[in-house]
Amino acid sequence: MQVEFAGSEILVDAALIAPLLRVSPADVSALLRQRIITSVCEGGIDEHQGQYQLSFFYRNRRARLRVDTSGRVLQRSTTQIAQRPSNR
């Protein structure tokens, strides 16, 4: 399982996003719980209907996955971005 849809939840294997964010797969869950890694899910429209774009943010990195409803990864990318300000 890399990406799985379970009702209203989307489950993503830590081994898939960890190298994109340059963290250890073992650390992903804790970083998500602490809201150090944040995420956004966007549903596709028009020619991307039936697809989702999953974005993960960690420090100055953004990892994006475009997946279909079966969980198949269609595209993956990483980008260096300006570091987001802390909410703390």
Biggest sheet: strands side by side, in what order? 3-4-5-6
CATH fold group: Nuclear Transport Factor 2, Chain: A
CATH architecture: Roll
**Portion in beta strands:** 35-45%
Could you tell me the radius of gyration in angstroms?
Answer: 13 Å
Which structural class do you get from the secondary structure elements?
alpha+beta
Give the low-pLDDT segments. none
Q: What's the overall average pLDDT, rounded?
A: 91
Q: What is the 3D shape?
A: globular
Structural write-up:
The protein has 88 residues and is of the alpha+beta class. It has one domain: Nuclear Transport Factor 2, Chain: A (Roll). Helices cover 19% and strands 43% of the residues. The protein contains 2 helices and 6 strands, in the order ββααββββ. It has helices at 14-21, 25-33; strands spanning 3-6, 9-12, 38-43, 51-58, 61-68, 73-80. The strands form 2 sheets. The protein has a 4-stranded antiparallel sheet, covered by helices on one side. A two-stranded antiparallel sheet has the order 1-2. The longest helix is centred in the N-terminal third of the chain and has 9 residues, at 25-33. The N and C termini lie far apart (34 Å). The model has no long low-confidence stretch (mean pLDDT 91).
Keywords for this entry:
single chain, 88 residues, alpha+beta, Nuclear Transport Factor 2, Chain: A, four-stranded antiparallel beta sheet, two-stranded antiparallel ribbon, 2 helices
